[in-house]
Amino acid sequence: MVPKSGTVCAKGADLHVTDGIVENALEKGLDVGFVTNARITHATPGALYAKGLHRDVEYDGAAKKLGAAECNDIAKQLLSYPASEFKVMMGGGADFLMEKARGGMREDGMNIDLEWSKLSGSRRVLGDKGDLQGVTASSENLL
Question: Is the pTM of the predicted complex or chain greater than 0.90?
Fold first, then answer.
């Protein structure tokens, strides 16, 4: 659900939208994920999991600039349902996931990639072609 016209983030009941295709697939016990050549926080893949935000609120710094610091930015929503249940998320945009000390753009000190890897299951964050080439179906469950 997108916020009402003229606003950057939804509030109240508008935040609790659970009628997306991903939620329906998960309720049926299906595996869900995506591969994109865009940032994983971009509006196109973000539409699968991000709720109640303007498309430009990809990380906390953008939220502050747009006057929506109180909202969970799109990258942060990767740690919540339904994104927390994805089996695969492949794409760009690592700088929106990492704190500045690690070369990212996050101003809140969070490392979304590392936090995601600590969620349940055997999760692995891949950083380059070599990491991907080292993956086998029997060795990895979540990417």
Answer: no
